[in-house]
Every structure is written in structure tokens, then in C-alpha cells.
Amino acid sequence: MEQPSTLEFYNHFLSTLLPQLHQAHLIGRYAGGAALQNHLNPLTSCGCKVYSQNDEDGITFEILRRLGLQKGVFAEFGVGNGMENNTLALAALGWSGFWVGAEDLGFNPNPKAAKKLNFHYQKEWISQSNIVNLYQQGLAQIERARCDLISLDLDGNDCYFVEELLRSGILPEIFIVEYNAKFIPPIRFKIEYNDQHRWAGDDYFGASLCSFSDLFEAHGYFLACCNVTGSNAFFVKNQYKKFFNDIPEAVEKLYASPKYFLTGLDVAGHPTSVKAIETIFSALNSGIETALE
């Protein structure tokens, strides 16, 4: 009996495996949709992705809509190579802002060499002792006085960095932070501060949702939402609470458990391209130059 060739074996393997992978993918998409529909917080159902890792962009846009904030200034600490984060979509809306991170960007944020910039990136290792200075330097580079939204995701000392910003009087309308969803309410957990902390891929990172809630509550913020994967929490100034009467108040009801298996589903159209991102920043910077002429 003739033995099947390697190619025939490979094709048979794919024909068997691919339907199973497709089925698993569909189950994941269904689970994601069900999680959005069944959550007690109506804000969660607004989740969708432009350039965020998961559904954070849609939640951000809905919060901004409720606040009546159409244009503003953003800051983001920890952006990877800049191709996927929580504020790139705001740049597409025409917001000015700055990022701070330890990696090189995967694109040119000033492709047309504009002289005056609406955006600045600073490559720097962030620590508790320099984060306030980095914030001030970022604002100075874009000639702005304050930020309306700050996002912070550094896989480690996040709670200490946030505390340093808040304690220094840096109080944006919206604060987005990564929380450690393994530690469910009412657990209060945060790692010990370490300047050189690097995430090892395990559960030793950041702080629990309750620990963050305690910190923000002490500085005049309330928890508005957690995204569907249990990655990011959204805190808003208390003065805007009247616009969120439809959301639960208890942290336990707002908490989203870790659903990291939903990360990366095809919820944002085609793959991200450098050309599209550079087009966004070209428009952002040319807007300033046009205004100055």
C-alpha cells in the first residue's frame, strides 16, 4: 500500500484542525458578545476597538460623550511600540498629547517634519521619582497646561505611579489604569515597589481593583467601568457623577473578571498599518501649522 506523501499528510492535518480552530474562534466571539450584553454596567456594552488592545476605545468615547468633552489633551505612560494603546484613537480625533515609554515607536510620529507639534514621545524608563517631571516635560513639549485624560499601563508599579501623580495635584477628568483582575473584590493587593520591576508573565504585577478604587476615591474620583477582558479600569472625577446615574456604584458590580482569552479577536477591521498611523499624526501636526499661518 502506497504511503501518503508529506504534503498529503499536511493537507489532511489542516483539513482536520482548521474547522476546530474556526469553531473555537466563533465560541470566543460569542463569549465576548455575551459578556458585553450580560454585564450590569451599561458602559461595558459600548466597548469597541480602534487601536486599543481590547474594547477600551469604545468605553473611552462613551465617557467623553457623557462629559461633553470633544477635544482635549491626553497623556499615556507605557505604550509599547505605539501601534496599540488607549490614546492613539484620541489622536485620530484631533486631540493633542504625549506618550512616555521605554521602547522605540514602530512609526514616525512626525512624518512631514512639522516644526510645531501637537504630539510628543519621550523614550524613558519610568520611575516613582521621575514620573511627575516626565508629565511636566511632556506638556511643555506640546505647549499645554494640563491633561484631560491619562492612561497608565506599565505591568508593575502602576499604583505607585498613579499615587505620585495624584498626590502632585495632577487630576485629569479621566484616568485609565490596568488592574490585576486575579484579585477579586474585596481583596486589596499591590506589589512592593521596585524601580527595576519587569513583568515575568505571572500574577505578580500591579494592584487589585479595590486597591485602585481606594486610592482614586481618596482623590475625588469614582469607578465608572472596567473593560470586558478585565484589563483596564476607568475612573472619572466625582463632579461628573450625575452623568453616570445608570451605572452601579459597588465595586463588586463594576468589576470584570479576567477574560484574557477574548484579547485579539477580530473586532477592529483590518490589521493596523504604519501608513494609517502616520497619516493620523500628519493630520494632527499639520492642523497646528495651518492654524499658525
Summarize the structure.
The chain is α/β, with parallel strands linked by helices and 293 residues long. It is built from 8 helices and 7 strands; from the N terminus they run ααβαββαβαβαββαα. It has one domain: Vaccinia Virus protein VP39 (Rossmann fold, 3-Layer(aba) Sandwich), CATH 3.40.50.150.
**Order of adjacent strands in the largest pleated sheet:** 3-2-1-4-5-7-6
- Uncertain segments of ≥5 residues (pLDDT<50)? 289-293
Mean pLDDT: 88
Strand content: 5-15%
Specify the CATH architecture.
3-Layer(aba) Sandwich
Span between N and C termini? 81 Å
The string of secondary-structure elements, in order, is HHEHEEHEHEHEEHH
Protein name: Methyltransferase FkbM domain protein
What features would you describe in this structure?
- It comes from Collimonas pratensis.
- This is Methyltransferase FkbM domain protein.
- It is a single chain.
- By secondary structure, the chain is an alpha/beta fold.
- It has one domain: Rossmann fold, CATH 3.40.50.
- It contains 8 helices and 7 strands.
- The protein has helices at 6-38, 56-67, 88-92, 131-142, 158-167, 209-217, 251-254, 274-292, and strands spanning 73-77, 96-101, 119-123, 149-152, 174-178, 221-226, 232-237.
- The protein is globular.
